[in-house]
Amino acid sequence: MRYLSISKSGIWQFRYQIPSEYRHLFDGLREIKRSLKTSNKDNAILLALELEIEVRRTIIYPTTTTISKPVKPIHQEKQHLSAQPKQTKALCPEKMLERFCLYKAQHISPKAIEMLRAKCQTVLDLLGKSDLPEIRRRDAEDAVQLLRQYPVNMKKKPQFKGMTAKQAVKLNDKLKMPTLSEESVKDYCQKTSGFFEWCHLNEFTDINPFKAIRFRKQRKDSEAKNAYTQTDLQKIFSTEIHTNRHFRHAYYYWLPLLANLTGARLNELCQLHKADIYQQDGIWVIQIDDRYEGQKLKNLTSRRLIPIHRQLIELGFIEYLHSVKHERVFPELKNSRDGFGSAASKWFGRLKTKLGFGRGHDFHSFRHTVATQFKQQQVSHIAAGAILGHTLNNITYDRYGKELPITQLQEVINLIAPLEGL
Fold first, then answer.
1. What pTM does this model have?
2. Is 72 a residue whose pLDDT tops 70?
Protein backbone atom coordinates (compact mmCIF):
# COMPACT_ATOMS: atom_id res chain seq x y z
CA MET A 1 0.00 0.00 0.00
CA ARG A 2 1.49 3.34 -1.07
CA TYR A 3 0.88 5.21 2.20
CA LEU A 4 2.52 2.54 4.36
CA SER A 5 6.14 2.40 5.51
CA ILE A 6 7.87 0.36 8.19
CA SER A 7 10.29 1.67 10.79
CA LYS A 8 13.57 0.03 11.83
CA SER A 9 11.81 -1.36 14.90
CA GLY A 10 9.25 -3.12 12.69
CA ILE A 11 6.30 -0.81 13.41
CA TRP A 12 4.14 0.29 10.46
CA GLN A 13 3.57 3.99 9.76
CA PHE A 14 1.06 5.99 7.72
CA ARG A 15 2.53 8.81 5.60
CA TYR A 16 0.41 10.99 3.33
CA GLN A 17 1.77 13.94 1.34
CA ILE A 18 -0.73 16.83 1.33
CA PRO A 19 -0.98 18.67 -2.03
CA SER A 20 -0.07 22.36 -1.63
CA GLU A 21 -3.58 23.57 -2.56
CA TYR A 22 -5.12 21.64 0.37
CA ARG A 23 -2.57 22.34 3.11
CA HIS A 24 -4.69 25.17 4.50
CA LEU A 25 -7.21 22.52 5.50
CA PHE A 26 -4.58 20.86 7.68
CA ASP A 27 -2.99 23.88 9.40
CA GLY A 28 -0.34 24.09 6.67
CA LEU A 29 0.97 20.57 7.19
CA ARG A 30 2.96 19.21 4.25
CA GLU A 31 2.61 15.62 5.39
CA ILE A 32 0.44 13.63 7.77
CA LYS A 33 2.58 11.07 9.54
CA ARG A 34 1.19 8.67 12.10
CA SER A 35 2.57 5.58 13.82
CA LEU A 36 0.04 2.76 13.45
CA LYS A 37 1.50 1.04 16.54
CA THR A 38 1.42 -2.42 15.05
CA SER A 39 3.90 -4.80 13.46
CA ASN A 40 1.11 -6.74 11.73
CA LYS A 41 0.80 -5.64 8.10
CA ASP A 42 -2.84 -6.66 7.68
CA ASN A 43 -3.85 -4.56 10.70
CA ALA A 44 -1.70 -1.71 9.42
CA ILE A 45 -3.46 -1.75 6.03
CA LEU A 46 -6.89 -1.43 7.68
CA LEU A 47 -5.75 1.42 9.94
CA ALA A 48 -4.07 3.21 7.03
CA LEU A 49 -7.20 2.91 4.89
CA GLU A 50 -9.26 4.46 7.64
CA LEU A 51 -6.83 7.35 7.98
CA GLU A 52 -6.78 7.87 4.21
CA ILE A 53 -10.59 8.05 4.18
CA GLU A 54 -10.55 10.73 6.89
CA VAL A 55 -7.96 12.76 4.99
CA ARG A 56 -9.83 12.50 1.69
CA ARG A 57 -13.14 13.33 3.37
CA THR A 58 -11.59 16.53 4.73
CA ILE A 59 -10.33 17.44 1.24
CA ILE A 60 -13.63 16.68 -0.54
CA TYR A 61 -15.96 18.10 2.12
CA PRO A 62 -14.00 20.94 3.77
CA THR A 63 -15.67 22.67 6.71
CA THR A 64 -15.27 26.24 7.87
CA THR A 65 -12.83 25.11 10.53
CA THR A 66 -9.46 23.60 9.75
CA ILE A 67 -8.23 20.37 11.19
CA SER A 68 -5.34 20.94 13.56
CA LYS A 69 -4.63 17.24 14.00
CA PRO A 70 -5.28 14.26 11.72
CA VAL A 71 -8.28 12.24 12.84
CA LYS A 72 -7.47 8.99 14.65
CA PRO A 73 -8.69 5.73 13.10
CA ILE A 74 -12.38 5.35 14.09
CA HIS A 75 -12.19 1.88 15.61
CA GLN A 76 -9.00 2.82 17.45
CA GLU A 77 -10.85 5.68 19.15
CA LYS A 78 -13.73 3.40 20.11
CA GLN A 79 -11.34 0.88 21.59
CA HIS A 80 -9.63 3.60 23.55
CA LEU A 81 -12.87 5.00 24.97
CA SER A 82 -14.28 1.61 25.85
CA ALA A 83 -11.02 0.49 27.41
CA GLN A 84 -10.71 3.46 29.77
CA PRO A 85 -12.87 2.16 32.59
CA LYS A 86 -11.49 -1.38 32.33
CA GLN A 87 -8.52 -2.53 34.40
CA THR A 88 -5.85 -4.06 32.14
CA LYS A 89 -4.37 -7.35 33.28
CA ALA A 90 -0.73 -7.18 34.40
CA LEU A 91 1.84 -8.84 32.12
CA CYS A 92 4.13 -10.95 34.29
CA PRO A 93 7.75 -10.37 33.15
CA GLU A 94 8.77 -13.92 34.12
CA LYS A 95 6.00 -15.48 32.03
CA MET A 96 6.94 -13.29 29.06
CA LEU A 97 10.56 -14.39 29.52
CA GLU A 98 9.48 -18.01 29.19
CA ARG A 99 7.64 -17.20 25.96
CA PHE A 100 10.74 -15.40 24.69
CA CYS A 101 12.94 -18.41 25.52
CA LEU A 102 10.57 -20.73 23.67
CA TYR A 103 10.89 -18.46 20.64
CA LYS A 104 14.70 -18.32 20.89
CA ALA A 105 14.93 -22.12 21.30
CA GLN A 106 14.18 -22.37 17.58
CA HIS A 107 17.41 -20.53 16.80
CA ILE A 108 20.04 -21.22 19.51
CA SER A 109 21.35 -24.17 21.50
CA PRO A 110 19.84 -25.43 24.80
CA LYS A 111 22.97 -24.26 26.65
CA ALA A 112 22.62 -20.75 25.20
CA ILE A 113 18.93 -20.75 26.20
CA GLU A 114 19.83 -21.60 29.80
CA MET A 115 22.38 -18.79 29.97
CA LEU A 116 19.93 -16.36 28.37
CA ARG A 117 17.14 -17.26 30.79
CA ALA A 118 19.39 -17.11 33.87
CA LYS A 119 20.85 -13.69 33.04
CA CYS A 120 17.53 -12.13 32.06
CA GLN A 121 15.91 -13.56 35.20
CA THR A 122 18.62 -12.00 37.37
CA VAL A 123 17.95 -8.60 35.83
CA LEU A 124 14.19 -9.02 36.24
CA ASP A 125 14.77 -9.87 39.92
CA LEU A 126 16.78 -6.67 40.33
CA LEU A 127 14.06 -4.66 38.58
CA GLY A 128 11.44 -6.02 40.96
CA LYS A 129 8.41 -5.09 38.84
CA SER A 130 5.35 -7.34 38.45
CA ASP A 131 3.97 -5.66 35.30
CA LEU A 132 6.14 -5.59 32.17
CA PRO A 133 4.96 -2.20 30.79
CA GLU A 134 5.80 -0.56 34.14
CA ILE A 135 9.53 -1.14 33.57
CA ARG A 136 10.96 2.16 32.33
CA ARG A 137 14.37 3.60 31.43
CA ARG A 138 15.05 4.81 34.96
CA ASP A 139 14.44 1.27 36.26
CA ALA A 140 16.88 -0.14 33.71
CA GLU A 141 19.61 2.31 34.70
CA ASP A 142 19.08 1.43 38.37
CA ALA A 143 19.37 -2.28 37.49
CA VAL A 144 22.70 -1.63 35.75
CA GLN A 145 24.08 -0.08 38.93
CA LEU A 146 22.89 -3.06 40.99
CA LEU A 147 24.51 -5.48 38.51
CA ARG A 148 27.85 -3.79 39.17
CA GLN A 149 27.42 -4.83 42.82
CA TYR A 150 26.16 -8.35 42.02
CA PRO A 151 28.44 -11.15 43.36
CA VAL A 152 30.17 -13.42 40.85
CA ASN A 153 28.76 -16.99 40.79
CA MET A 154 26.17 -16.03 43.38
CA LYS A 155 24.20 -19.28 42.92
CA LYS A 156 27.25 -21.40 43.77
CA LYS A 157 28.15 -19.65 47.03
CA PRO A 158 26.58 -20.84 50.30
CA GLN A 159 26.55 -17.30 51.74
CA PHE A 160 23.81 -16.37 49.25
CA LYS A 161 21.79 -19.59 49.34
CA GLY A 162 18.04 -18.96 49.01
CA MET A 163 18.48 -15.22 48.51
CA THR A 164 16.98 -13.04 45.82
CA ALA A 165 19.29 -11.02 43.59
CA LYS A 166 18.56 -7.84 45.55
CA GLN A 167 19.21 -9.55 48.88
CA ALA A 168 22.52 -10.89 47.56
CA VAL A 169 23.59 -7.40 46.46
CA LYS A 170 22.71 -6.01 49.88
CA LEU A 171 24.63 -8.73 51.73
CA ASN A 172 27.61 -8.40 49.43
CA ASP A 173 27.85 -4.74 50.35
CA LYS A 174 29.13 -6.08 53.70
CA LEU A 175 30.98 -9.20 52.50
CA LYS A 176 32.87 -7.39 49.70
CA MET A 177 33.10 -10.54 47.57
CA PRO A 178 34.10 -10.22 43.87
CA THR A 179 31.42 -8.64 41.69
CA LEU A 180 30.60 -8.84 37.98
CA SER A 181 33.08 -7.29 35.59
CA GLU A 182 31.94 -4.43 33.37
CA GLU A 183 31.94 -6.80 30.41
CA SER A 184 29.67 -9.22 32.27
CA VAL A 185 27.32 -6.39 33.24
CA LYS A 186 27.17 -5.40 29.59
CA ASP A 187 26.38 -9.00 28.58
CA TYR A 188 23.52 -9.22 31.12
CA CYS A 189 22.08 -5.96 29.78
CA GLN A 190 22.43 -6.91 26.12
CA LYS A 191 20.59 -10.18 26.68
CA THR A 192 17.87 -8.36 28.61
CA SER A 193 17.66 -5.74 25.86
CA GLY A 194 17.06 -8.54 23.34
CA PHE A 195 14.20 -9.79 25.50
CA PHE A 196 12.59 -6.34 25.77
CA GLU A 197 13.08 -5.68 22.06
CA TRP A 198 11.09 -8.84 21.34
CA CYS A 199 8.40 -7.73 23.81
CA HIS A 200 8.27 -4.32 22.13
CA LEU A 201 7.97 -5.74 18.62
CA ASN A 202 5.18 -8.03 19.82
CA GLU A 203 3.42 -5.06 21.46
CA PHE A 204 3.62 -6.36 25.04
CA THR A 205 5.27 -3.09 26.05
CA ASP A 206 5.76 0.30 24.42
CA ILE A 207 9.53 0.65 24.92
CA ASN A 208 12.76 -1.28 25.28
CA PRO A 209 14.13 0.34 28.47
CA PHE A 210 17.57 -1.27 27.98
CA LYS A 211 18.07 -0.01 24.43
CA ALA A 212 21.36 1.82 23.76
CA ILE A 213 22.64 1.78 27.34
CA ARG A 214 26.30 2.71 26.95
CA PHE A 215 29.28 1.01 28.57
CA ARG A 216 32.88 2.11 28.68
CA LYS A 217 35.16 -0.31 26.83
CA GLN A 218 37.58 -1.87 29.32
CA ARG A 219 40.07 -3.35 26.86
CA LYS A 220 40.77 -3.98 23.20
CA ASP A 221 38.90 -6.82 21.51
CA SER A 222 42.25 -8.53 20.85
CA GLU A 223 42.95 -8.63 24.61
CA ALA A 224 39.76 -10.51 25.56
CA LYS A 225 41.68 -13.81 25.46
CA ASN A 226 45.43 -14.37 25.73
CA ALA A 227 47.34 -15.99 22.90
CA TYR A 228 50.07 -18.50 23.76
CA THR A 229 53.65 -17.31 23.38
CA GLN A 230 56.35 -19.61 21.99
CA THR A 231 57.47 -20.24 25.58
CA ASP A 232 53.89 -21.19 26.52
CA LEU A 233 53.67 -23.58 23.57
CA GLN A 234 56.94 -25.24 24.52
CA LYS A 235 55.53 -25.81 28.03
CA ILE A 236 52.30 -27.35 26.68
CA PHE A 237 53.98 -29.62 24.13
CA SER A 238 56.90 -30.72 26.29
CA THR A 239 54.89 -33.05 28.55
CA GLU A 240 55.12 -36.81 28.12
CA ILE A 241 51.87 -36.66 26.13
CA HIS A 242 53.72 -35.20 23.15
CA THR A 243 57.36 -36.11 23.83
CA ASN A 244 56.74 -39.81 24.54
CA ARG A 245 53.21 -40.18 23.15
CA HIS A 246 52.09 -41.43 26.54
CA PHE A 247 48.37 -40.72 26.86
CA ARG A 248 45.10 -42.33 27.86
CA HIS A 249 43.07 -41.06 24.90
CA ALA A 250 44.25 -40.11 21.41
CA TYR A 251 42.58 -36.71 21.62
CA TYR A 252 45.02 -35.75 24.42
CA TYR A 253 47.73 -35.83 21.77
CA TRP A 254 45.97 -34.65 18.61
CA LEU A 255 43.54 -31.94 19.75
CA PRO A 256 46.17 -29.40 20.97
CA LEU A 257 48.22 -30.04 17.82
CA LEU A 258 45.21 -29.60 15.54
CA ALA A 259 44.10 -26.44 17.34
CA ASN A 260 47.56 -24.88 17.20
CA LEU A 261 48.08 -25.73 13.52
CA THR A 262 44.58 -24.96 12.19
CA GLY A 263 43.02 -22.34 14.52
CA ALA A 264 39.78 -24.39 14.60
CA ARG A 265 37.41 -24.26 17.57
CA LEU A 266 37.39 -27.09 20.12
CA ASN A 267 33.95 -28.46 19.24
CA GLU A 268 34.67 -28.20 15.49
CA LEU A 269 37.59 -30.60 16.01
CA CYS A 270 35.90 -32.89 18.52
CA GLN A 271 32.91 -33.56 16.23
CA LEU A 272 34.97 -34.43 13.13
CA HIS A 273 34.13 -37.52 11.10
CA LYS A 274 36.82 -39.35 9.17
CA ALA A 275 34.90 -38.44 6.00
CA ASP A 276 35.50 -34.76 6.86
CA ILE A 277 39.21 -35.28 6.12
CA TYR A 278 40.15 -35.97 2.50
CA GLN A 279 42.30 -34.84 -0.40
CA GLN A 280 41.29 -32.04 -2.73
CA ASP A 281 43.55 -31.28 -5.68
CA GLY A 282 46.19 -33.42 -4.01
CA ILE A 283 46.02 -31.43 -0.74
CA TRP A 284 44.78 -32.94 2.53
CA VAL A 285 41.99 -30.80 3.98
CA ILE A 286 39.65 -30.72 6.97
CA GLN A 287 36.04 -29.90 6.19
CA ILE A 288 34.31 -28.01 9.02
CA ASP A 289 30.61 -28.68 8.51
CA ASP A 290 27.38 -29.90 10.12
CA ARG A 291 26.42 -32.56 7.60
CA TYR A 292 26.52 -35.46 10.09
CA GLU A 293 24.26 -36.10 13.06
CA GLY A 294 25.25 -34.13 16.15
CA GLN A 295 27.56 -31.75 14.33
CA LYS A 296 26.98 -28.03 14.96
CA LEU A 297 28.33 -24.80 13.52
CA LYS A 298 28.64 -21.55 15.43
CA ASN A 299 27.41 -19.61 12.38
CA LEU A 300 27.24 -19.84 8.58
CA THR A 301 30.79 -18.56 8.05
CA SER A 302 32.10 -21.43 10.19
CA ARG A 303 31.51 -23.82 7.26
CA ARG A 304 34.91 -24.00 5.54
CA LEU A 305 37.88 -26.05 4.31
CA ILE A 306 41.20 -25.91 6.18
CA PRO A 307 44.32 -27.36 4.52
CA ILE A 308 46.21 -29.65 6.89
CA HIS A 309 49.52 -28.17 8.08
CA ARG A 310 52.61 -30.02 6.86
CA GLN A 311 53.72 -30.78 10.44
CA LEU A 312 50.48 -32.67 11.13
CA ILE A 313 51.19 -34.83 8.07
CA GLU A 314 54.76 -35.41 9.28
CA LEU A 315 53.54 -36.40 12.76
CA GLY A 316 51.34 -39.12 11.27
CA PHE A 317 47.84 -37.65 11.49
CA ILE A 318 46.69 -39.39 8.31
CA GLU A 319 48.06 -42.73 9.55
CA TYR A 320 46.19 -42.19 12.80
CA LEU A 321 42.93 -41.69 10.84
CA HIS A 322 43.43 -44.97 9.01
CA SER A 323 43.93 -46.74 12.34
CA VAL A 324 40.62 -45.54 13.82
CA LYS A 325 37.93 -48.24 13.53
CA HIS A 326 35.05 -45.80 13.78
CA GLU A 327 33.34 -43.20 11.57
CA ARG A 328 34.38 -40.40 13.94
CA VAL A 329 37.94 -39.18 14.41
CA PHE A 330 37.71 -39.22 18.22
CA PRO A 331 35.04 -41.84 19.02
CA GLU A 332 35.72 -41.70 22.79
CA LEU A 333 34.22 -38.18 22.88
CA LYS A 334 30.46 -38.38 23.37
CA ASN A 335 27.83 -35.88 22.37
CA SER A 336 26.26 -33.85 25.18
CA ARG A 337 24.24 -30.69 25.63
CA ASP A 338 27.36 -28.63 24.81
CA GLY A 339 28.41 -30.77 21.86
CA PHE A 340 31.26 -33.28 21.62
CA GLY A 341 33.84 -31.06 23.32
CA SER A 342 32.77 -31.23 26.99
CA ALA A 343 35.16 -33.98 28.16
CA ALA A 344 38.06 -32.55 26.15
CA SER A 345 37.47 -29.07 27.55
CA LYS A 346 37.54 -30.37 31.13
CA TRP A 347 40.69 -32.40 30.46
CA PHE A 348 42.54 -29.44 28.96
CA GLY A 349 41.35 -27.21 31.80
CA ARG A 350 43.01 -29.57 34.29
CA LEU A 351 46.17 -29.76 32.15
CA LYS A 352 46.64 -26.02 31.73
CA THR A 353 46.08 -25.44 35.47
CA LYS A 354 48.68 -28.12 36.24
CA LEU A 355 51.09 -26.32 33.89
CA GLY A 356 50.55 -23.02 35.72
CA PHE A 357 48.23 -21.18 33.32
CA GLY A 358 45.51 -19.07 34.92
CA ARG A 359 42.43 -17.18 33.71
CA GLY A 360 42.71 -15.84 30.18
CA HIS A 361 44.45 -18.95 28.89
CA ASP A 362 42.35 -21.91 27.75
CA PHE A 363 41.86 -24.13 24.70
CA HIS A 364 40.41 -21.20 22.73
CA SER A 365 43.75 -19.43 23.18
CA PHE A 366 45.18 -21.66 20.42
CA ARG A 367 42.77 -19.92 18.04
CA HIS A 368 44.05 -16.53 19.19
CA THR A 369 47.61 -17.79 18.77
CA VAL A 370 46.97 -18.67 15.13
CA ALA A 371 45.23 -15.32 14.49
CA THR A 372 48.18 -13.51 16.09
CA GLN A 373 50.68 -15.35 13.91
CA PHE A 374 48.67 -14.49 10.79
CA LYS A 375 48.63 -10.84 11.85
CA GLN A 376 52.39 -10.82 12.48
CA GLN A 377 52.97 -12.47 9.10
CA GLN A 378 50.77 -9.76 7.51
CA VAL A 379 48.35 -12.35 6.11
CA SER A 380 45.36 -10.62 4.51
CA HIS A 381 42.19 -10.56 6.60
CA ILE A 382 40.46 -12.31 3.68
CA ALA A 383 42.73 -15.37 3.80
CA ALA A 384 42.82 -15.40 7.62
CA GLY A 385 39.02 -15.17 7.72
CA ALA A 386 38.68 -18.07 5.26
CA ILE A 387 40.78 -20.33 7.52
CA LEU A 388 39.35 -19.19 10.85
CA GLY A 389 35.75 -18.95 9.64
CA HIS A 390 35.27 -15.25 10.31
CA THR A 391 32.85 -13.04 8.39
CA LEU A 392 34.52 -10.13 6.60
CA ASN A 393 31.69 -7.63 7.21
CA ASN A 394 32.10 -6.49 3.62
CA ILE A 395 29.25 -6.98 1.14
CA THR A 396 31.65 -7.21 -1.81
CA TYR A 397 33.45 -10.21 -0.33
CA ASP A 398 30.72 -11.77 1.86
CA ARG A 399 28.02 -11.83 -0.81
CA TYR A 400 29.83 -11.76 -4.15
CA GLY A 401 33.35 -13.02 -3.46
CA LYS A 402 34.10 -16.66 -4.22
CA GLU A 403 36.21 -19.02 -2.09
CA LEU A 404 40.00 -18.68 -2.21
CA PRO A 405 41.88 -21.49 -4.05
CA ILE A 406 42.89 -24.32 -1.71
CA THR A 407 46.51 -23.95 -2.87
CA GLN A 408 46.53 -20.35 -1.63
CA LEU A 409 45.07 -21.40 1.74
CA GLN A 410 47.71 -24.13 2.03
CA GLU A 411 50.46 -21.52 1.68
CA VAL A 412 48.84 -19.47 4.45
CA ILE A 413 48.32 -22.41 6.86
CA ASN A 414 51.97 -23.41 6.49
CA LEU A 415 53.01 -19.95 7.70
CA ILE A 416 52.04 -21.12 11.20
CA ALA A 417 55.33 -21.83 12.95
CA PRO A 418 55.92 -25.58 13.39
CA LEU A 419 56.28 -26.76 16.98
CA GLU A 420 59.81 -27.51 18.11
CA GLY A 421 60.94 -30.75 19.69
CA LEU A 422 58.26 -32.99 18.16
1. 0.61
2. no
